[in-house]
Design a protein that fits this description.
Elements lengths: L25 E5 L23 H11 L3 E5 L9 H9 L4 E5 L7 H10 L1 E7 L10 H13 L3 E5 L5 H9 L5 E3 L14 H12 L3 E4 L3 H4 L10 H10 L4 E2 L16 H11 L3 H17 L1
Parallel strand pairs: 1-2, 2-3, 3-4, 4-5, 5-6, 6-7, 7-8
Helix pairs in contact: 5-6
Bound molecules: (1E,3Z)-4-hydroxybuta-1,3-diene-1,2,4-tricarboxylic acid.
């Protein structure tokens, strides 16, 4: 199956980052795709990506100086978690996963996922990526994953937070917000729309946030300095509930493939002290995924 028109494959030769990652650093948001001949894409997918197999992910991990990965099931594989699980099994304990499941998932499949290293499920609210799932269905899934000690990753866009907030705060698990809630950089950190997420995190200590994907929000382009204030505000306010990841292989980015080395060099701009960097890159993701 050819890639979707306009789909941009991952950067072929990322630069070596200048920032030296602390030992044990975790890339807490990345994906694997295919290879399609072994793990076909889901018929209900909204886009066809470029294959991004586990070997390439692990090579990037080593090249950048990262130690571990959290592999998040992407929508192109929908509820078929086999490519992600295959990567977890090949990682020798150095990867954990976040799955995508429907309520038809059997207890045996959940057990299989758990054994492979899955520690969460993702609820995706982006209409361009997935079909709508009613809240009561998601609530029932949440109840089942709570019993496994998993958490829930939520992917939404900031304008949708007001209507989703009551549902999110009723979830019985830890809740991890993807990509800073994808704020509108034009509006600024102090905008009520963005401050709503800060208030929510202040009030609900079970919420975590990924300071990921400046490349998806930046208007200025690399090195994404216009997004720094958003990441920095979250790291400073919630130092023990922030995690970071590359988002490799960057599905559906516009304009150009981000250089993963530049994304690593973004880290010390949002986490400016060695202590903040250690929390963001090692202690926090280890607590959430490996404890
Ligand atoms: C991401 C973002 C995207 C894609 C997916 O599940 C997915 O297909 O996550 C996106 O297109 O914004 O989290 O990497």
């Amino acid at each position: 199956m050819p890639m979707s028109p306009g789909y941009i494959p991952f950067h072929p030769h990322p630069s070596k980052p200048k920032f030296k990652l602390p030992p044990g650093a975790v890339d807490a948001h990345c994906h694997v795709f295919g290879p399609e001949n072994k793990f076909p894409y889901a018929p209900e997918r909204k886009y066809t990506p470029c294959d991004a197999p586990k070997e390439k992910l692990f090579a990037l991990r080593d090249f950048l100086g990262l130690d571990r990965n959290v592999i998040v099931q992407a929508s192109a594989h929908s509820k078929d978690n086999r490519a992600m699980v295959d990567a977890l099994e090949a990682a020798n304990g150095r990867a954990k996963g976040v799955a995508f499941v429907g309520e038809e998932v059997s207890d045996a499949e959940l057990k299989w996922l758990d054994k492979a290293g899955v520690r969460g499920v993702r609820f995706n609210f982006l209409k361009r990526l997935v079909d709508f799932t009613p809240g009561d269905v998601l609530a029932r899934i949440a109840g089942r994953v709570e019993k496994l000690g998993w958490h829930i990753v939520v992917y939404f866009e900031m304008p949708d937070l007001p209507e989703l907030e009551d549902f999110f705060t009723a979830l019985p698990t830890a809740v991890v917000v993807d990509h800073m809630g994808t704020p509108d950089v034009k509006k600024g950190v102090e905008h009520p729309e963005n401050q709503r997420l800060h208030r929510l995190m202040d009030k609900h200590k079970n919420f975590w946030v990924k300071v990921t994907c400046p490349e998806r929000m930046s208007l200025a382009g690399p090195p994404y300095d216009d997004v720094v204030p958003f990441g920095r505000a979250l790291v400073e306010r919630f130092p023990d509930r922030v995690i970071w990841g590359t988002d490799w292989p960057h599905p559906n980015v516009k304009k150009e493939a981000p250089d993963d080395g530049v994304l690593v060099d973004y880290i010390p701009k949002v986490a400016v002290t060695a202590a903040a960097q250690r929390a963001l890159l090692v202690d926090n993701p280890m607590r959430l995924y490996w404890a």
